[in-house]
Amino acid sequence: MQDSPSQPTGSPGLNHVAIIMDGNGRWARQRGLPRIEGHRRGVSNVREVLKIARELNIKYVTLFAFSVENWQRPAEEISSLMGLLEFFLERNTRELVKNKVRLRVIGRPDDLPEGVQKKLHQALEATKDFQDYVLQVALNYGSRTEVLDAVRAYSEDVSQGKVDPAHLDWPLFSRYLYTADIPDPDLLIRTSGETRISNFLLMQCAYSEMFFSPVFWPDFDRKHFLDAVESFHQRQRRFGKTGEQIKAAPASEPAINR
Ligand code: IPE
Ligand code: IPE
Ligand code: MG
Question: Can you tell me the distance from the alpha carbon of 35 to that of 26, in angstroms, rounded to the nearest whole number?
Answer without folding.
Answer: 7
